[in-house]
Design a protein that fits this description.
single chain, about 425 residues, mainly alpha, Serine Threonine Protein Phosphatase 5, Tetratricopeptide repeat, two-stranded antiparallel ribbon, about 0% strand
Length: about 425
Amino acid sequence: MTYSEKMLDQLQKGDLDAARHTFRAALDHDSDEMLFSLGEELYGLGFLRQSRRVYLKLLERYPDENELRTNLATIAIDEGHNDEALSYLAQVKPGSPAYLEALLVAADLYQTEGEFEVTEAKLKEAAGLAPDEPAVQFALAEFYFLVGRFDEAIDYYFQLIRNGYTAFAKVDIAGRLGMCYAQSGQFKQALGYLQQVKPEYRTSDIRFQTGLTQLHLGQVEDAITTLRDLIHDDDQYASAYPALAEAYSAQRNYPQALRAIQEGLGVDQYNERLYSQAAEIVSHLGDQQLMEKYLKRAHELDPDNLTIILQYSNFLLHQHNDSANIKLLAPLIKEDEVDPQVYWNLARSYQRTDQVELADKYYHAAANNYQDNPTFLKELIGFDREMGKTSEMLAELHRYLVLVPTDAEMQDLLDEYEEY
């Protein structure tokens, strides 16, 4: 048994002190071929510092062996030493047998730094050198999957399938195709591939996407089964709970939907979207007190979330809590861009609290955005009628009746004023 083999055996047994002594002996006595193999094994086991020492020793003996530089660059990236990695990679020139690998390692480095244009350029250069190389096809597929260019990712995953690969680097290709099709809204194709994933590759992510895809396809019972099984096996997978609640809501089974979302809050108690969803579910159960509790908590967790603000505002309007609604929305008016719903909701509360000048201001601030909204126009007609703005009211009446010509009450109102 070589020192390298002995060291690996000691590591497997957990005898780290002995392995440390044997490692030094391996560096002094084992063959270069055995040391290279040791470096690979140590890297695979996560002993990056020791693997680096092996490759550096070999590089002293073989300064023209660029594969060692790419290996050292990979370790440097894993350790967060990107400048060191770039230094090694810059020494690998085009024409070197290791240049293709250097391009792939460089692409990985630039991807970790978020420099996606450079990443793509490196991968495209690699594809130009070796268009049929599976590692290159896989790297391009994974890159396009990461950045959300799913059609391009699909093309490269299919190239791998045509080359005979159903999995690569411990990634199931059918699963990736299913995820890509799902993310691009092609749910039938997505489900077909997701259901082909072998059991050993059915990660929580794959199972979640399967349930979500079934839900999109209206296969609600199947989605519930998939998501419940996922939660049974991985109860910390927080995203499964709101999806399960959505499935129950699709069946109008709001008690079960609430139970699912409450279980999710037990896993992820600082997720404002869960509280917002809980409030929406509770609105169907008629528990106003609980609904307000969830909305307050959602707003506390993310006070700048406009969707939650408007959801809370609509609740306050329904409760006729106009002072609270004004307090909630008034600060938003100072922003450069204001959602017209904010103006509308403020106008309602100002009207109900007899602050008619402010109500007038905000109704008309919202008006340009709601010219095709019959509900808004009907409210505005009533307000302008109260304010004695006859010409504005008549213009709004004409616009409203184009949208709702069957509203006899509004037609009678128009006839009354036009006769007058």
